[in-house]
Amino acid sequence: MTPAPGYSAATGNVVLQLTNIHGDVALQLPLDTSKAPVALDSDEYGNPRTGQAAAR
Fold first, then answer.
1. b vs e for 24-43, b when ≥16 Cβ sit within 10 Å of the residue's Cβ?
2. Sheet of strand 38-39: strand arrangement
3. Which of 4, 9, 34, 40 is packed most tightly, with the most Cβ within 10 A?
C-alpha cells in the first residue's frame, strides 16, 4: 500500500488514505487514535463490493 496525502474531513480531522497497487483507496486511517480505520474492498475493476459504504 502506498500512503496518499492526508485530507481534512469536514470535522477538521486528518485522515490518511492508503492505496493499493492500482491506486484504489484500500484503507482510510484517521490520525485521531480514538477513531477506527476503515478498510475498503473493491473488485478487479475498482468497483466497491456490494454492501460497502461509499468512500468520500
1. bbbbbbbeeeeeeebebebe
2. 2-8, 14-19, 25-30, 38-39
3. 40
Cell digits for 14?
486528518
C-alpha cell at 16: 490518511
Check: pTM over 0.70? Answer yes or no.
Answer: no
Under DSSP, the state recorded for 6 is E
Cell matching residue 22:
492500482
Count the alpha carbons within 13 Å of 1 in the hemisphere toward its beta carbon.
Answer: 15
Taking the C-alpha atoms of residue 25 and residue 54, their distance in angstroms, rounded to an integer, is: 11
Q: Is 20 exposed, middle or buried (0-12, 13-18, 19+ CB in 10 A)?
A: middle
